[in-house]
Write a structure and sequence with these properties.
The chain is an alpha/beta fold. The chain has eleven helices and ten strands. It folds into two domains: 162 residues, D-Maltodextrin-Binding Protein, domain 2 (3-Layer(aba) Sandwich); 116 residues, D-Maltodextrin-Binding Protein, domain 2 (3-Layer(aba) Sandwich), CATH 3.40.190.10. Strands 1, 2, 3, 4, 5, 6, 7, 8, 9 and 10 form a ten-stranded mixed sheet that branches. Helix 4 runs parallel beside helix 11.
Length: 325
C-alpha cells in the first residue's frame, strides 16, 4: 500500500499541474494599456451598455478602461472579421449577439472569418425577443396582427438589425408560421428601428427585451408577445409566442469573445474580470431594471452554450428556407 501511494501521488500531482499553472498565469496576466472592445452595432444598444459595465470592471480590477469600438454593417460580419484578424493578446475583444458568433456561418456561403475559432470569454446575459408594434397600428394581439397582415399582403413592414440577425430570422419565422407576407426593412441597429417605429415609419419588429424595456415602460411601443419559452416575469400580461405556436422560441444573448489562439490563461483572467464586473450592486440593478437574465458562465460553458444555440438557429434557417441573397 505504501508503494502504491508513492507511485500514484506524483501522477496525480502531474495531472493537476496544468490547472494550477492556468490559475496562476491568469492571476499574473495584467493589462498595461486600455482594452479595445468591438461591438457590431451602433452605440446606444445592448452591446454598448454591456461593454460599459465590463469597462467599469476592468477599471476597478486593472485600472485600465475598455475602449468602445462600434463597427456596424454587413450583417455584423465587419466586426467578426476585425476580431478574427486581431492579435491574440487580450487587448481586443468583441461583445456581440448571436449573428457573428453562431448564425452567419449558416447563412453566408463564404465568410472572411471562422466564428468557431473565437475564444469565448463568457456569455453575459440573455433576453427574449419581444414582438413590438408601433402605437398607431390598430392591433392589440398576435391574432389581430396576423389578420391585418393577411388582409393587406406586403403592406405591413418589419425592421431588423440586418439580414441574418436573430431579429431578421425571427421575423421570417413569424411570417412562415402565420402564413403572411410582411416586408423586411434592414437597419444597422435597434436604436434606429425603435426611432422609426416611434416615428410611425415601421409597423413592427422583434426587439430584445434589454433594448425594448425602456420603451415598453414609457408606453411608446406596444408589446404583443415575447419570444421566450414562457412569459417574461416583467411582462406577466404579455403572452409568449409559444402560446400561439408551441415551437416558436426566439431569445437573444450577448457574449464577450477573444480572437482565435488567445492563450487560455488570458481568457481565464478576462473571464474573472468580466464576471466580477457584473457582480457589483450597480450592474445588478441595471440588469434587473432591464429584465436581462445574467448567464456569466465559464469559457468552456460559453463555448457549449454558443454551439448549442448555433445548432438551434441553423435548424430555424433550414426549416424556414431563409437565405441571404
Amino acid at each position: 500500500m505504501t508503494i502504491m501511494r508513492l507511485t500514484l501521488a506524483p501522477c496525480v500531482a502531474a495531472s493537476l499541474l496544468p490547472l494550477f499553472w492556468n490559475a496562476a498565469a491568469a492571476q499574473d496576466w495584467t493589462p498595461t494599456h486600455p482594452i479595445r472592445v468591438i461591438i457590431p452595432v451602433p452605440a446606444g444598444s445592448a452591446p454598448d451598455l454591456l461593454t460599459r459595465i465590463i469597462g467599469q470592471g476592468f477599471q476597478a480590477r486593472w485600472s485600465q478602461p475598455a475602449i468602445l469600438d462600434p463597427h456596424p454593417g454587413a450583417s455584423q460580419n465587419i466586426a467578426g472579421d476585425l476580431l478574427f484578424r486581431a492579435e491574440p493578446d487580450g487587448y481586443t475583444l468583441l461583445t456581440a449577439p448571436p449573428p457573428p458568433l453562431a448564425v452567419n456561418q449558416h447563412l453566408f456561403k463564404k465568410l472572411t472569418y471562422d466564428p468557431t475559432a473565437f475564444q469565448p470569454v463568457s456569455v453575459l446575459v440573455e433576453a427574449p425577443n419581444v414582438l413590438m408594434v408601433r402605437s398607431g397600428l390598430p392591433v392589440k394581439t398576435v391574432a389581430e396582427l396576423v389578420a391585418l397582415a393577411r388582409s393587406e399582403p406586403g403592406v405591413l413592414n418589419y425592421g431588423s438589425t440586418g439580414p441574418g440577425s436573430t431579429l431578421h430570422l425571427t421575423g421570417e419565422a413569424f411570417k412562415a408560421h402565420a402564413g403572411v407576407e410582411i416586408t423586411h426593412v434592414p437597419f444597422k441597429g435597434t436604436v434606429e428601428i425603435i426611432a422609426d417605429m416611434m416615428g410611425e415609419r415601421i409597423d413592427m419588429a422583434f426587439i430584445n427585451l434589454v433594448d425594448a424595456w425602456p420603451h415598453i415602460q414609457a408606453g411608446k411601443l406596444r408589446p404583443l408577445a415575447v419570444g421566450g419559452a414562457a412569459r417574461a416575469p416583467g411582462l406577466p400580461d404579455v403572452p409568449s409566442l409559444t402560446e400561439t405556436w408551441p415551437d416558436f422560441v426566439s431569445v437573444t444573448w450577448f457574449a464577450n469573445v477573444a480572437p482565435p489562439k488567445t492563450p487560455a490563461a488570458i481568457v481565464d483572467a478576462l473571464n474573472a474580470a468580466v464576471r466580477a464586473a457584473f457582480e457589483t450592486p450597480e450592474a445588478k440593478k441595471i440588469m434587473g431594471d432591464l429584465h436581462a437574465t445574467p448567464v456569466l458562465d465559464s469559457p468552456a460553458q460559453a463555448r457549449a452554450y454558443i454551439d448549442a444555440d448555433s445548432a438551434r438557429w441553423k435548424e430555424v434557417i433550414v426549416r424556414n428556407r431563409i437565405a441571404i441573397e
